[in-house]
Amino acid sequence: MPSAGSVDNFLSEIRHIDTSETYNEALYRQNQTVFFPPPVGPYIKCPSIRAESVDYFPAFLELKNKSCLLVGGGSVASRKVESLIAAGAAITVVAPELDAKLQRFVDSGRITHRAGRFSPEDVKGQWLVVNATGDSQVSNEVFAASNAARVFCNSVDEKTRCSYVSPAIIDRSPIVVAISSGGAAPLLVRKLRAQIETALPARVGQLASLASEWRGKVKNRISDLLGRRRFWERFFDGAISNDVLAGRMSSARLNIARLLRDAAGSTDQQGEAWLVGAGPGDPGLLTIRALQLMQSADVVVHDRLVSKAVLALVRRDAELISVGKTPGCQSASQEEINGLLIRLVREGKRVCRLKGGDPFIFGRGGEEMEALATAGLRYQVVPGITAAAGCAAYSGIPLTHRAMAQSVVFLTAHGKDSLDRLDWPSLARDRQTLALYMAVRRFQDIRDKLIEYGRSPETPIAIIENGTSDQQRVIHGYLEDLTDLAERHDVVAPAILIVGDVAEFGIGKEWFESPPVIQQPETPALVATR
C-alpha cells in the first residue's frame, strides 16, 4: 500500500493547480484528465480526453434589451422574429417592405422598421444578425459586413453564410432543449425534436423553477458541495419530482422542507466504489447499469484503454483521473490505485472505477475489490463485455462452434513470466479457441510455444486491432506467419489474437467492416479495415 501522504498529497495537488507549474505539481481542470501519479519531467499539456472536434460551439445567448438586426421583410423573417421577441431582444428590421405580420409587430411597438435596402452600416452596434432575405447577393453583403464587425450572423438556409446556426427548440422554460445538425440533416433534427417533445414531461419547467426558488435556502443550510449535490439528486429523483410532475405543488413543498431538514442534520456522506466494465470500445456496448453509474459518479478513475467515446458519456462535472499507462507518463502501481480508491471513498465520494472490457477478466478488479472489502468500504461490481467477445463478434468470428471449437480459453501474455506459467500441452490441442489479451509484444513466443507443443503451423489466426472502434483492423492468416503478419502490418496495441479454426470461419461473414483479404500460403496478407 502507498503511504497515506502520497495519496493525500496527490489529492491535494489536483485541487490547487497552477497551469504554469510543472506537471510534477499535477494538472486538474474541468473536463480535463489528471494522471496519477503525475509523470516525472517537464509539464506536458494534456488536452481534454472527452473533447472531440465540433463544427459549432453550443451556447445559449441572453438577448434581453440587446440590439439585434433582422434583414428581410417576408414570411421567413416573420417566423424568425418571434423567437427574437420571446428572448426580449430589441429588434430592428431592415427591408423595403414588410408583410402583414411584421407590420403588426411594428404597429404594436414590438420591433423597429427601417425601410430600405441593407447597408453595412446597419450592422454597427448589433449583438446578433439574422438574414432572412433569400437573396444571394444580399446574403453575401450581410455576412461580409457581420464578419467585418465581428457580429455573429445567421443566414436562413444558407449554411456557408452562417457564423452561427439556430437549433430546433423544445421549450419548457426555464428548461430549454436545443438540437442542431449544423444544417446537415434538418429532417432528422425535426424527428428528434418530436421524440423529445413527447418524452419530456410538461411540468419539467415547474420543477426547475421550484429548484431555483429553494437554491439559496439549500446553500445556506448545507455548507459543503458534496452534501448539496446529494440533496439535489434526491430532490430530482424522488417524491418531490413526482409531486411536481403530477401537479401536487403543496405536497412537493412539504417534502422539500422535510428533505432539507434531514439533509442539514446529517454530516455523514457515505462514499462507495463501483468497479465498472466499459466494454471493448464501442459506447453502444455499455450496459445500462454502467451508463447510470457513469452519470452519477463524483470521480471516474479510468484506464487508458477506455475509449474517448465512452468517456464522453461520463457526467460532465465529474473528476477524471487516468491511472493507465500513457507514453511519457509514469505508471501507477496497483497498490497506488487501491490506495487512491480507498482515499476517495473515505472522503464520501462515489467513485466509478472504469475499466476497459470486464473488470474481472484481466482487469485486476478482484484485487481492487479485495482492497475495498478489507478497508470495510461499500462497493459494487458491474460486468462489461470483455474484449475477446466484443472484438470477435465485430469481426464475424464465433469463439465457439459445434463443428470447430467446443471450448474457448482466455489468456493474457502480459507480464514477464506469464507465458512460462501456461499449460502449453493443453493449449496446443485442437478443437478449441484461444483468445490472447495484451499479446502484441509476445507474438513470436506464442507462435513458437504452440507449434512446439503440437499445434499445426497452419492453424488459422486473426489479429483484431482496435476492435469495435472506427479504427478496427482484422488481419487473417496462419499461426506460422503470426510474427511476419504483425510486423508487415505494423500491428500495435490494443489488439486481440484469436487462434483456432473459428478465425478462418469468420472470413466472409463480416458485418462491421469491409471484407478482408486472407493470407494464403506464400501469398501476402491483406488487411480488413472498417
Describe this structure in words.
The chain is an alpha/beta fold and 530 residues long. It has four domains: 1-53 and 269-385, Tetrapyrrole methylase, N-terminal domain (Cobalt-precorrin-4 Transmethylase, domain 1); 67-164, NAD(P)-binding Rossmann-like Domain (Rossmann fold, 3-Layer(aba) Sandwich); 204-264, Helicase, Ruva Protein, domain 3, CATH 1.10.8; 388-529, Tetrapyrrole methylase, C-terminal domain (Methyltransferase, Cobalt-precorrin-4 Transmethylase, Domain 2, 2-Layer Sandwich), CATH 3.30.950.10. The protein contains 18 helices and 19 strands. The strands form four sheets. It has a six-stranded parallel beta sheet, sandwiched between helices. A six-stranded mixed beta sheet has the order 14-15-18-16-17-19, sandwiched between helices. Strand 16 and strand 17 form a beta hairpin. The radius of gyration is 30 Å and the shape is globular. The two termini are 44 Å apart. Residues 1-31 and 40-49 have low confidence and may be disordered.
Question: What's the quick description here?
Answer:
This protein is of the alpha/beta class and 530 residues long. The chain is 34% helix and 17% strand.
Indicate the topology:
Blueprint: H1 4-13, E1 33-35, E2 67-71, H2 75-86, E3 90-95, H3 100-107, E4 112-115, E5 128-131, H4 136-149, E6 152-155, E7 168-172, E8 175-179, H5 186-199, H6 204-221, H7 225-237, H8 239-245, H9 249-264, E9 272-277, H10 288-294, E10 299-302, H11 308-311, E11 319-322, H12 334-346, E12 350-355, H13 365-374, E13 379-382, H14 387-394, E14 408-412, H15 424-427, E15 433-437, H16 443-452, E16 460-465, E17 473-478, H17 482-488, E18 495-499, H18 501-505, E19 527-529
Parallel strand pairs: 1-11, 2-3, 2-5, 3-4, 5-6, 9-12, 9-13, 10-11, 10-12, 14-15
Antiparallel strand pairs: 7-8, 15-18, 16-17, 16-18, 17-19
Helix pairs in contact: 6-7, 7-8, 7-9, 8-9, 12-13
